[in-house]
Amino acid sequence: MLAKLPELTHSTKLDSSAYDGILVVAPKIEDVKDEKVRKSLESYAKIDASAAGGCFVVPSELPAAKIIFSSTGPLDRDYDDVRR
Predict the structure, then answer these.
(1) Whole-angstrom Cα distance, residue 46 to residue 23?
(2) Is residue 78, in this structure, part of any structural domain at all?
(3) Is 71's pLDDT higher than 90?
């Protein structure tokens, strides 16, 4: 029997305690606009250079307590399509 998946909702308030994680999907860490989130991601990428091009989880001082980052890689090349 499959367990029920948690409901995903969108919020523009990163300081909300109503969420247990922040999901960031971007081509690269430098594209993340929020400074607190970007700094957490950059500090991890400094110790694991391969993380910037993949998917990883880092702890955060924000109420959500964790940030999940997934890199899409570049999306503006001639051969990039919706599968990226």
Answers:
(1) 20
(2) no
(3) no
